[in-house]
Structures are given as C-alpha cells and as structure tokens.
C-alpha cells in the first residue's frame, strides 16, 4: 500500500515561488494552492526530505509505493506530473534532476539556504550503499574498488569485466558505479552492427555525456583534441567546424589516439574519471586501438577505464579483443574480472527477493540451480515464471519440475515468444530488426501503426519486465523521445532469428524506409545503419548507395580501416545488383573508396591498385562519373608511387583527354601532377617543365581543398617539382624563391600534408646542394609533422633524410642503417618511386664509412632499380658515386670513365648543375682534357645564380692559374 501521510518528520520547505507543507498536505505557488494528486505529492515530499541527495529508483518506489508491485514507468509518470506542476524543464532542471539510469535528486535551493555550486560532471549514484537487489560478487566489487583507489592515486587502471550472456556484467558495473557517489563518470555502449561500426562510437557517446555534465570540457577539447571536437558537431558553430576541417585535412587516425590520451591526462589532473564502455564484443577496431593506446601511456592519470564483454563470443569469433587482452595482461597493463555463475547460496538470495519462504526450501533452490546452471539471467527468468504460477496448488518444486525449463537461454526466450499475442510479437519482431535499441517512431512507421498505439504497447511490455526496458531518462529531447531497449540482447537475437527470412527482409525494408524518412527530418541515422537494413532487405542498389556514403563518412572520421570493411561488404553485394548504368556508377564509387581506404590502411599494395584499376576500367563506360577526378588522381598517384610509370602516364593521358571534353580543371591538374612527376623522375626535363607550368597556370585561379581530390595542395606540389627542375638548371636563386612561395602557401593553408610536401621538396633541394645541416633540420621538421598528424607518407622519408645527414655529418654507419631500413620498409609497402635515389644515399653512406665493397654492392642495387624503373633523374649522381668507389678501390681509369658518363647523362638531361658537379669531380681527381676544363669554365659563367655555392667555388679554385714557384 502507499506510504502513510503521517510522517514523524513532515517536510516543510520553501523553494523559489513554492511552499511545500507535508503535515497540511498542501503545495502553494505564490500563496495559491496547487492541485497535485497524492502520489506525486508524496514523491515530492520524499525528494525534498533529502535535498541534494540522489535517491535511487528502487528507494523511491519502496518509500512512496510501499510493497505494491509497480514498474519504473509509474515512477517516471509521477516525476513527469511533478515537473508539469513545477514548470521544471528536465533538460535544464531547477528542482528535480535526473541522474541517468539511476534515480533523481532534489536540487531546489531552500529560500534560506545559500546556493550550492553546480555539479560540473556526470555523477554516479550517491553513497556506497548497494542496491537491495544486488546479489554476491563481493570479490569482484573489492577488485573494482581497489582499481579505482589505484586510479585515484594517479596510476591509470584498465579493467575488463568478462562473462557469458546474462551473467550480470551490467548489474555489477551499475552497482559499483552507484557505490562511488558523486564522481565524474562517462558511459558509452557498443551496439551490434553489420560490418564495421562507426569508429569510436562508445567513446564518443561517453564524451558527449561528459560534455553535457561538465561545461569546461568543450574548451579543453578545442585546446587539445580538435579531431574529437569535430566528431561532436553540436559543440561548435558551422564556421568553427569549417576551420577545423581545413586544419585537419590529411590527418590520420593516430592523431585521434594522441589527442584522446592528452585529453584524458589533462582532464584527470582536476578530478578522477571513471570511463565505462560496455559490450566490447561489438566494439569497432578504433575503440580497441584507443584502449590499447591509453593503457600504454606513461604519464600519470587519475583514470579508470572499465569495460565489459562476452567472453565466449570474443574467443569463438577470434575477436581482435582477444590478442589485446593477452598482450595487456602479459605486460600487467590491465586487470580482468571474470564473473562465474551463482552458487546455490546466491541463487537462494535471488529467490529470497521474491519469497523468503521459498528461499528456505533447499530442495527448490538446489533444483533451480541445477536447471539454470546458476546463470543470473536464467535464474531470474525462471523465478519470474515460477512466481507467476504461485496460485497453483502444486508445490514450488512441482511447479519448477512441471515447467519446460530450457537447458539454455534460447529455449527460455522461445518460451516467452510463444506467450506473445500476434500484435506484440509483430511489434517486437520489428523492434528486433531495428537493433538492441529502437525508437517508437521507427517501429510505428515500419508497421504503419499509430505512434501512440506503439508507445502504449511498449509500456505494457516494459511492465512485464521480460522484453523491454524503459527509455533512459534524460536521453531524449523535445522533438524526439529516447529509445526503448531490449532487456537483454539475446532476447532480441532469438526473436530476430525466429522471424522467417522473407518476413525479416520485408521488415528490414520497412525499417530502412522509416529511418530514411527520419533522417531527412533531422534524426541522426548513419549511412552504415541504412546500408545494413537495405542489404538485409535484399535491395542491393539502395544498400550500395548507403555503403558508399558510409565509407566516405568513415574516411572523413579518419578511420580507413572501417571504410575498408564497408567497401569489402559492398563489393560482395555488387554481384547481387542488376547490371546497368546505376550499378556501374555505384561500383566506381565503391571501388574508388576501397582504393583510398586500402591505400591509407595498407599502403600502395596490390589491393589498392586493383580497386582503382577496377573503377578505372568501368570509367570507360561511364566517363561522366562525378568521382572521375578523385579516381584518376588516386589511381595515377598510386601507380607512380609503385613505380609503374607507364601505366601512370596512361592514366594521366586519360585525365587530360577527359578534362578537355568536360572542361574540368581538376582533371587537368591530375594530369599535370602525374605527368610532371613521372617525366621528372625518368629524366625528361623539358616535358616535365611543360606539365608543371601548365599545372600552375591551371591551379592559380582555383580554390580546391586538399584532401577532396588531391593529397596535398596542387600549387604547393607543382612548385616543389618546379624547384627540382630549376636547381638542375643551376637556377638556385629562382629555386629558393619558389621554395619560399611554396612554404608561405602551405603555412597559410594550414594543411599538414601540404606542409609535409613543401618540406619534402626542400629536403630534395638541399640534398642536391650538399647542405647536410639543413637536411638534418628538415628531417626533424618532417618528423614533427608526421608525429603530430599521423602522416603515413612521410614516415620513411624522415628516416632516410635523417640518415643522409648523419652520414655526411660524421656518422655514416648510423646513417646507412636509417636509410637502408626506411628503404626496405618502403618496398614492403609497395612504394618503389625514387628507389634509385634512396639506394644511392645508402651506397654513399657506406663509402663514407670506408666500406667500398659494400658500397659497390649497394650501388649495383641502385643502378638495377634505375634500369627497372627507367629512373634517370639521379643517374648522374650514381655515375659519380661509381667513380668515387673505383678510386677508393684503386681503379682510377674506371673512375674517369664513370665521371665522363655522368657528364654525358647530365647533358642529355639538360641539367647544367649536374654537369658542373661531374666536371668538378673530373678536374679534381683525374687528368681532364683542355676541352673539359673549358667546358667547366663555360658552365661557371653560365650559372651566375649558383655563384655562392660550394661546387662553383671549387670550380673557380680549379680554374685559377697556378702561381709560379
């Protein structure tokens, strides 16, 4: 029965414009009586009796409704009535605050009391008092408490709670969080998905929850974690997001890891944080990588990351969580709490919550334990069934024996399915198709039923305490109700599996259409979710459209691995789509995204190449495809990085032809960049210069965002290529001027990949001038960009430029090691472009170390690469290196012949700077003919811009007449 109105300590309090007088059973507003039903009035008194204290739902139900059996929805209704009377907005409460999933707190300030400071964080349940329904698990709670104490002392803790479905993982976590009181706690939930899920979904959910409770956090995000801020668009304006997107173009997923690590370190300097992510067996790979990264960080942090997962599923499905668990446990970077089934004593405690008399029946308890194996969910389900039959004359043991109690949970769920009426089963089947959580609007649209009718049916299922749980308070808004959820994911899975395939496909089609409508109305529905529904609805064309959108979104979220999974599924689905123009168009888009994601995730290996090639072949049939610019540039770029120069030129020629027909400057730029790079590397300077200049003219009036079509800003890329052509011509001052222009534009654009390209080309320039100190400094600048923005393309280049500088600065063997390892790693990634030059660096380092035989072997490898790839741009330097090795081995004549071949090659490439280097070498180390000395003198006069360089000073010294003795 309801609680009595006569209370030993009746509440009398004044807050804002209200006066509450429990003894006289009245609530006044500005002196006028307010009509309020007895139950909401008693609830308000109970809340006001303990201001500022969190009262759990169970505590309020016991206090207000006594021993009546009522569901949480009744409490929710009473709270809603109170808020209506008090004109209290649940999103910005003045009087009654909802603590998500836990209960309510009276936060009104009494008229005579000073205002309390606002709660700045998401808070857990108050007080260390366990829930009355919590059974056992004392050891598990003690271990969690120990980990929390460790975290509070500054030593980060990563803890797993593992067990089978229904073993009580969530219950344990809820109880533990409730025991900690008003702490900073952020919670995220992994959800079952088809193919790769949205990257970092549970972490983003937890971060959003924390931002809602702590208003200082968004500013910290802007400061140290802008890539995460970009994933929470409601925290910034459209203008701020546009600036962020430009600044973060080209940023890789590693940047997000470092930012989150720094964010957690900074945040926990002020307060300990409990981060909870449940159901990791459904986690995306990005979240697991983040856990690994956070666990391995060395700085102190008052952080505890608590996660749960189903042990059997992780092991059986060879989930990526398995190796992560083992590795972290091996290095003592995590703790694992594995939950076992209940003992007979604990089963008796469960029974006692329903009937103290039945709990003392040892035979019944033992039979129940045997039939359920002590799995808490099994126990709870069966006890509920037994108690519902309490009116039967049979004994409890008889009722238990008479029940068709299953041997596994699926059979128990089948039993409940059989009890559903047709309307409820249809509703739950549609809800199961939606997922573990679903919105009433979605199911109503799918079933073509009234929203109110579906909502009422859901509330009825909630009250049965078998199928559904109530929407979590505080998660909805004025426009949308929060979602309902299945009490256990296995209930949903069995329902889904028991639905006939044809009916299931029909429901997926209806749900997909409903979600499309909701998405168009502003409800946040991801393309990946829509792709899954239409895939299972056997509507491949629609599914493929959404798979393409989802893959593009994953790439924008810096998660190429997720994009790769989506495009793999889409590629398989393509075979089910009818042939025709639309299928071709979708296949071009999907193959292009597959190529991009494979390139970013795996390098320029065969998978990226084949994906681009498939799209390229299809483009012949669909030449007007909107993604042709991205495709042709991406394919040409991958081919050139792989050293497949003939094919790259063919793609560039295709881009040029398409640009003239479609008047598309982006296509022309793609053609210019690929042509310029290949012709330059293969020693055709006139052709390279023509393409570079044409590209610069084309790019000048355009405002193309790097990352949409091009890897880096086209102008900066072309200016860097122009610098190399100018230095080979001895136009050193012009080259420096263009380098400065390139850097200025890169800095103005604030695009990391563009800054890397500008620095890379300057390093090539300084290598040709022999400035080791400057190259060393540039290598460090490149390393800083690579580290900060996770720019995979620059990782190896940093190392070989650092190695080149080390070799010339007195540490040749260390330098050789850096160059050789970087070159081998590049080859493993499939990138062969420029291999002849980098191998030349390695041979030079060995020669500087005094090992001419090893240098000769390395040089032969460089020459072989030059022949295989037809790379001639560095050939004059390789001939000079062969001459130096021959001299070191006492073969002066062979050395002279090699120098003269270097001179011939430099002249063939119309590169007077390279010819100057060779003539200086010939005159210094060999008997140069008069014609050769005259040629050197002529070159010195032709290269006024190189007058301050070391090679020109050496040339003048050589040409100076000898003084008479």
Automatic annotation (TrEMBL):
GO terms for molecular function: adenylate cyclase activity; ATP binding; DNA binding. Residues 10-108 form the OmpR/PhoB-type domain. PROSITE patterns: OMPR_PHOB. GO terms for cellular component: cytoplasm. Gene3D superfamilies: P-loop containing nucleotide triphosphate hydrolases, Tetratricopeptide repeat domain, Winged helix-like DNA-binding domain superfamily/Winged helix DNA-binding domain. Keywords: ATP-binding, DNA-binding, Nucleotide-binding. This is Transcriptional regulator.
């Amino acid at each position: 029965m309801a609680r009595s109105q006569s209370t030993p300590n009746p509440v009398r309090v004044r807050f804002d414009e209200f006066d509450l007088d429990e003894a006289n059973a009245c609530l006044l507003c500005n002196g006028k009586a307010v009509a309020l039903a007895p139950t909401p009035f008693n609830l308000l008194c109970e809340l006001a009796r303990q201001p500022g204290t969190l009262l759990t739902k169970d505590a309020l139900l016991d206090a207000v409704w006594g021993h009546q059996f009522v569901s949480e929805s009744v409490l929710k209704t009473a709270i809603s009535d109170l808020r209506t009377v008090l004109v209290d907005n649940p999103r910005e409460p003045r009087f009654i605050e909802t603590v998500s999933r836990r209960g309510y707190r009276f936060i009104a300030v009494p008229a005579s009391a000073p205002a309390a400071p606002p709660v700045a964080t998401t808070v857990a349940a108050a007080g260390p008092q366990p829930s009355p329904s919590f059974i056992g698990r004392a050891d598990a709670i003690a271990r969690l408490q120990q980990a929390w104490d460790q975290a509070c002392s500054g030593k980060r803790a990563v803890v797993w709670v593992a067990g089978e479905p229904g073993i009580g993982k969530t219950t344990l976590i809820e109880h533990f969080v409730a025991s900690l009181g008003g702490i900073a706690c952020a919670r995220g939930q992994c959800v079952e998905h088809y193919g790769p899920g949205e990257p970092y979904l549970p972490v983003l959910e937890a971060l959003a929850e924390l931002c809602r409770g702590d208003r200082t956090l968004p500013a910290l995000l802007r400061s140290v974690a802008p890539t995460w801020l970009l994933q929470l668009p409601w925290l910034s304006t459209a203008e701020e997001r546009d600036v962020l997107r430009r600044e973060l173009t080209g940023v890789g997923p590693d940047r997000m890891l470092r930012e989150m690590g720094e964010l957690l370190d900074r945040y926990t300097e002020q307060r300990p944080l409990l981060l909870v992510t449940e159901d990791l067996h459904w986690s995306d790979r990005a979240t697991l990588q983040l856990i690994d990264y956070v666990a391995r960080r060395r700085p102190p942090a008052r952080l505890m990351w608590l996660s749960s997962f189903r042990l059997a599923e992780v092991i059986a499905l060879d989930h990526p969580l398995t190796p992560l668990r083992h590795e972290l446990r091996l290095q003592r970077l995590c703790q694992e709490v594995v939950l076992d089934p209940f003992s007979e004593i604990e089963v008796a405690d469960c029974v006692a919550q329903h009937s103290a008399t039945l709990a003392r029946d040892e035979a019944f308890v033992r039979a129940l334990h045997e039939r359920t194996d002590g799995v808490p969910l099994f126990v709870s389900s069966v006890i509920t069934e037994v108690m519902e039959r309490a009116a039967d004359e049979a004994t409890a043991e008889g009722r238990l024996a008479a029940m068709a109690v299953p041997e596994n949970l699926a059979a128990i769920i089948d039993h409940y399915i059989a009890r559903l009426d047709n309307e409820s089963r249809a509703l739950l089947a549609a809800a199961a198709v939606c997922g573990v959580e679903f919105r009433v609007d979605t199911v109503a649209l799918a079933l073509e039923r009234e929203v109110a009718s579906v909502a009422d049916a859901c509330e009825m299922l909630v009250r049965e305490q078998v199928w559904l749980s109530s929407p979590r308070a505080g998660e909805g808004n004025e426009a949308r109700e929060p979602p309902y959820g299945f009490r256990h994911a296995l209930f949903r899975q069995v329902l889904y599996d028991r639905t006939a395939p044809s009916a299931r496909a029909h429901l997926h089609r209806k749900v997909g259409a409903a979600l499309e409508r909701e998405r168009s109305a502003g409800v946040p529905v991801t393309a990946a979710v829509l792709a899954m529904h239409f895939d299972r609805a056997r509507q491949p064309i629609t599914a493929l459209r959404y798979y393409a959108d989802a893959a593009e979104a994953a790439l924008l979220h810096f998660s190429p691995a997720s994009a790769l999974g989506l495009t793999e599924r889409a590629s398989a689905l393509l075979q089910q789509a009818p042939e025709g123009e639309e299928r071709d168009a979708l296949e071009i888009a999907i193959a292009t995204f597959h190529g991009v994601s494979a390139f970013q995730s795996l390098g320029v290996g065969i998978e990226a190449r084949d994906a681009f090639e498939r799209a390229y072949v299809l483009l012949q049939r669909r030449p007007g495809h909107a993604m042709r610019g991205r495709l042709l540039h991406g394919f040409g770029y991958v081919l050139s990085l792989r050293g497949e120069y003939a094919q790259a030129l063919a793609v560039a020629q295709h881009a040029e032809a398409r640009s003239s027909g479609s008047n598309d400057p982006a296509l022309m730029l793609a053609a210019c960049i690929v042509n310029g790079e290949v012709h330059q590397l293969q020693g055709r300077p006139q052709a390279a210069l023509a393409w570079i200049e044409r590209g610069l003219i084309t790019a000048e009036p355009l405002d193309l965002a790097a990352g949409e079509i091009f890897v880096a800003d086209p102008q900066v890329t072309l200016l860097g290529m122009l610098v190399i052509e100018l230095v080979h011509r001895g136009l050193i001052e012009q080259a420096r001027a263009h380098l400065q222009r390139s850097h200025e534009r890169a800095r103005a654009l604030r695009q990391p990949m563009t800054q890397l390209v500008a620095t890379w080309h300057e390093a090539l320039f300084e290598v040709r001038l022999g400035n080791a100190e400057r190259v060393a400094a540039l290598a460090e600048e490149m390393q800083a960009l690579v580290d900060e923005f996770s720019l995979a393309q620059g990782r190896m280049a940093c190392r070989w430029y650092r190695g080149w500088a080390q070799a010339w600065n007195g540490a040749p063997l260390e330098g050789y090691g850096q160059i050789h390892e970087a070159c081998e790693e590049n080859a493993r990634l499939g990138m062969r472009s420029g291999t002849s030059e980098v191998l030349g660096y390695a041979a030079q380092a060995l020669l500087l170390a005094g090992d001419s035989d090893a240098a000769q072997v390395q040089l032969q490898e460089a020459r072989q690469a030059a022949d295989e790839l037809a790379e001639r741009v560095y050939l004059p330097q390789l001939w000079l290196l062969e001459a130096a090795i021959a001299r070191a081995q006492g073969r002066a004549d062979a050395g002279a012949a090699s120098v003269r071949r270097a001179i011939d090659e430099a002249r063939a490439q119309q590169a007077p700077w390279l010819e100057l280097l060779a003539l200086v070498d010939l005159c210094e180390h060999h008997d140069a003919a008069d014609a050769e000395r005259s040629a050197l003198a002529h070159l010195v006069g032709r290269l006024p811009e190189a007058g301050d360089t070391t090679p020109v000073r050496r040339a003048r010294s050589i040409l100076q007449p000898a003084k008479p003795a």
